[in-house]
Design goal:
By secondary structure, the protein is an alpha+beta fold. The protein folds into two domains: 66 residues, Winged helix-like DNA-binding domain superfamily/Winged helix DNA-binding domain (Arc Repressor Mutant, subunit A, Orthogonal Bundle); 184 residues, GAF domain (Beta-Lactamase, 2-Layer Sandwich). 50% of the residues lie in helices and 17% in strands. The protein has ten helices and eight strands. The strands form two sheets. Strands 5-4-3-8-7-6 form a six-stranded antiparallel beta sheet, sandwiched between helices. A two-stranded antiparallel ribbon has the order 1-2. Strand 7 and strand 8 form a beta hairpin. The protein starts with 16 loop residues before the first helix and ends with a helix.
Length: 272
């Protein structure tokens, strides 16, 4: 189960009930369409006076409109501004983090969620700050090699041949240290073949000396969404041993991320 972690010095504050209730009303109007106060009070469990006050506040703010002829409240196009700023990256990070914390609870070793961007894997989320076995406390925003890291190899092997070719071409042109390997057809074929045979990607010292990793791809509705790795010291175990111990937990985490990603996109589509 995902449990909320607070950073040192971070205080927990009481919820603002009026804000929560206002969001409930927006959600109900979004689901049911224009409604009167009696209908909204019945569906949300709020009393009529509270509904009137909240709806009038939302009307003044521009999120709700009121049809005096029919006494119906409805949403305005301004409500879309609440979701337009949510990008696919935001949704993918939100989908990944709860599952990553659950994985951390099971295995203790840190993990990263990365997406392909500009020839390498950009780490979007990480549990390094919370792992007792991590030597890094800041991983979000760092990049990992597409061809040398387990994170990159997992995404590369799971991509279609056409997409894989485009990824490699971008890496060859934008990442100097990986250019030669990205152009080496036999090297890439070996990576893809081995990853598919093993059922996971792996690397030993590919990103840092003394650090190993195994990784799995995360699939979206179309292209590969990204990948999830598990980091450990090379002296502590081999990738094969890590897979025997932890691959089942990683697969469960990936399935949860994919489920959350799908649900988030479905909800976003309904709002739009």
């Amino acid at each position: 189960m995902f449990t909320l972690r607070t950073l040192p010095g971070q205080a927990m504050h009481r919820n603002v009930r009026a804000l929560s209730r206002g969001l409930v009303l927006i959600g109900e109007l979004n689901a049911s369409g224009p409604s009167n106060v009696v209908q909204l009070a019945r569906r949300t469990g709020l009393n009529r006076t509270t509904c009137y006050r909240l709806l009038d506040t939302l009307r003044v703010a521009g999120y709700v409109t009121f049809d005096e002829t029919n006494a119906l409240f409805g949403l305005t196009p301004q409500v879309r501004t609440l979701s337009e700023g949510v990008s696919s990256r935001d949704l993918s990070s939100q989908a990944a983090l709860p599952a990553m914390f659950s994985l951390l609870d099971e295995v203790s070793w840190p993990s990263d969620f990365g997406v392909f961007e500009l020839g390498s894997m950009l780490i979007r989320e990480s549990t390094h700050p919370f792992s007792p076995f991590s030597v890094h406390r800041s991983m979000v925003g760092r990049r990992r090699s597409l061809v040398r890291s387990a994170l990159g190899r997992a995404a590369l092997a799971a991509s279609s041949p056409a997409l894989r070719r485009e990824m490699l071409e971008m890496t060859a042109s934008l990442v100097d240290e990986d250019s030669a390997l990205a152009k080496d057809r036999h090297f890439i074929e070996d990576i893809v073949s081995q990853t598919k045979k093993d059922g996971y990607a792996s690397s030993v010292g590919g990103s840092e000396a003394g650090i190993s990793a195994i990784a799995l791809p995360i699939r979206g509705a179309g292209p590969v969404l990204g990948s999830l790795n598990l980091i450990f010291f090379s002296t502590s175990m081999t990738p094969e041993l890590a897979a025997r111990r932890y691959l089942a937990d990683m697969k469960q985490a990936v399935q949860e991320i994919e489920r959350r990603w799908s649900a988030a996109n479905t909800a976003r589509g309904k709002i739009a």
